[in-house]
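To assess whether the prediction recovers the assembly geometry, we first specified each molecular entity separately, as shown.
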Amino acid sequence: MKRTISLTINGKPHAGEVEPRLLLIHYLREIAGFTGPHIGCETSTCGACTVLLDGKAVKSCAIFTVQADGRQITTIEGLAVNGKLDPLQEAFWNEHGLQCGFCTPGMILTAKQLLADNPSPTEAEIRKGLEGNVCRCTGYQHIVNAVKAAAAKAGA
Amino acid sequence: MATTVKQEALVGKKIRRREDPRLITGTATYVDDIKMPGMHHACIVRSPHAAARIKSLNVKPALERPGVVAVFTGADVKDLGSVPCIAHLPGLRAPHHHVLAQDRVYFVGHPVAVVVASDRYIAADAADAVEVEYDVLPAVADPEKALAPGAPPVHPQWPDNVAFTFHQEGGNVEQAFREADVVVRQRITSQRLIPMAMETRGVVADWHAAEKSLTLYCSTQAPHLLRSLLADILGIAENRLRVIAPEVGGGFGSKIDVYAEDLLMSFVSQRINKPVKWIESRRENFLGTIHGRGHVDYYELAAKRDGTMLGLKLKIIQDLGAYMQLITPAIPTLSVLMMPGLYKFKNISADIVGAFTNCFPTDAYRGAGRPEATHGIERMVDILAAELKMDPAELRLKNFPAPEEFPFATATGLLYDSGNYALPLKNALDAVNYTTLRGEQEQARKQGKLMGIGISAYGELCAIGPSAAAPNGGWESATVKIEPSGKVTVLTGASPHGQGEETTFAQIAADELGVDIDDVVVLHGDTLLVQYGIGTYGSRGTAVGGAALYYALQDLKDKIRKFGAMMLECEQVTLAGGRCVDDRTGKSVSFAEIASAAYKAVKLPPNTEPGLVATHFWEPPNFTFPFGSHIVVTDVDPDTGQISIRRYVAVDDCGRIINPLLVAGQVHGGVAQGLGQALWEQAVYDDNGQLVSGELTDYAVARAHMMPWIEASHTVTPSPVNPLGVKGVGEAGTIGCSPAVVNSVVDALSHLGVRHIDMPLTPEKIWKLVQGARS
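The predicted structure of the complete assembly is given in tokenized form:
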């Protein structure tokens, strides 16, 4: 039996009827049309599907859409404001924090929460904060540099 | 808008990537992001058994479910061609690889049926409803067990499980062994690995019956190869088949292959006359996308007492899996080619036995045959050093060919292009302060602490390669189009998927033409748009594709000069700073003015046609041979077996560097996968052929907190093989890493009598070794 939901995605209201078992990642990608978050594992181990739910980074493959009813979601598409890149997006670009780009939306949003919780993290804290997000291309070093650079810029 | 003039050279500069804006904003299009009107979804029913006869198959319960439009089984695709293998070894036994199992399954995950429905969830539910009865047979998952007498035959027609044997010799290895003072022997394994690109495989097939044409969106590294092979197997005219590699989320070799699902979706779209999408789940990716490595190697190294290496014998047992994927049997032959490593000895003998197992096929995964060879020789050098009580760095330095000995012919028939092998090793030794560090190690041992220093000096065979040595053409192509406005479009036959050629190729084009990089667009990955190309693998993108681009640019510059000379009414012009300049008068015309004149074509230079387009297909004369040295300093906790990496120093020589930022990224990423093999990763099949580490939850890839800081630097020895002097860097980190790590940990435990440890170096293994030595 379908359930009615309404939620806010990147500042805009979305409403509709969904099956209770519909995963949030599938709602975002296939119904709401936000394909920025990716599906990398379906077991909440890789973090490619990470979005912000009420400001907290969550893995949207491990949440039912109905659990997001009435809540605020930010996907990677909603991070830049009026076409101006978020400092983290800019830093990932400058520091070559991505190669194939598949993990990047989730990685940036996890870093977003990391910096919100800890505006000037040490290298070890950055690595610990990103341990739930897998990148197979970069070896993480440039990602660490990007988060450091974004933190430094925010602190400047 | 006209082109703007560029002032400074871009090649060699850290330029941030031109592909990134779409990737950091979530607006790139990967296969799963494609939606089409009427598109259906496919879900594949797979065998839970490694070896079984299919007793019965009932698709009716699936077909009866609302939203299900079709279910296809082995009988429907019986006459479809085999999943292709293009590597031809003499006497190779290559079983027909049906896209869906016929009466028997050969590995866990073997596709048995495909369910097609209007929606992803409906397809998955219906796939569960397909009833399959199996008569389970004995399976064998270990290559050595498969070759033992009495093992269950993977394919009943070949009861010995031998798919092929291969032998190669160089020099006189028996004489070398007779003359040797010392022979060291060791069994060394390179375990099965999962390539694990972050984006799983996926296909959208879109058949247009009226045109008898098929468009296939596929997460592939080699779209043209896929098109040619599909056309042949499906019986679709190649000029009516379009393959598009959209954004590809990593490959590491695993997406060079043509897979059963690529063929199957093409078939399904034809049958339902609608577009169909199949996206691999991560579980399917572990079970049904190629694996890497899978070697059991037996090494014998002969040397003089003074450390002069004389000869090497190698027997490789290669775990092939149940079928031949694209180049499955060729991978261990690459190991043979690189078996001498960076050392001068000229006597080798190699044997390969390719073993069938009830597992998914192995094939090219980052390094493809070369990490196995490097791991083997670099372990053997350390074992020899221990035997001779010689310093492992000294032993290596003693056996390198000198820079003046290049090009250097190896015992395996290769010609190493250029090298200064001692330089990166010396730089790495200096970086870790080697002599002091050895002193520190001695002190640490006195206090019961376990500390190790591990060296690898690696070489690799890259820029694959001359066509005679490649299974399907080793050249690459480029087209450069200067549009009437002067804007530059580059079409490359290489098909990058994270490497950044949209940036590096734009750097090359901007420099050669003297235009602003923002006036250059690099396109790839669409067979309708791009001239035939080979693809991106084997660290060939820049070294072969970039060289093809360089030559296309030279062709075009000749034509630009002709137009410039005509417009300036002079004999000789120089192309510089985005302008053609009359050398005598200093008068000039801009690049944009020339482009406009070439297309308006009111007046043409003698024997010159309108337009500014050049296509160049470039055949490389040789491979390139990057090299380097990695040094890893480890501390091992004797009570837990935990290994921590104190220093990771990588000194790589990949020839001339186009973009240091991107080269660093390749090194870091390569090292992460090398460390994965050395310390964490293993595709574990149990005795029944079940993949135990069959999900990302059970397979340990590197995560941010597991990685050490990598101190990467370079030496630059240009390659004479291509005009750019580049050698390639995509696989270097992976190849150089694992032996350095294992050598380091073995070094940490060497005073306890440990001589070799097989990968991955799990804490359990280390702890047991330490406990064993203590008791």
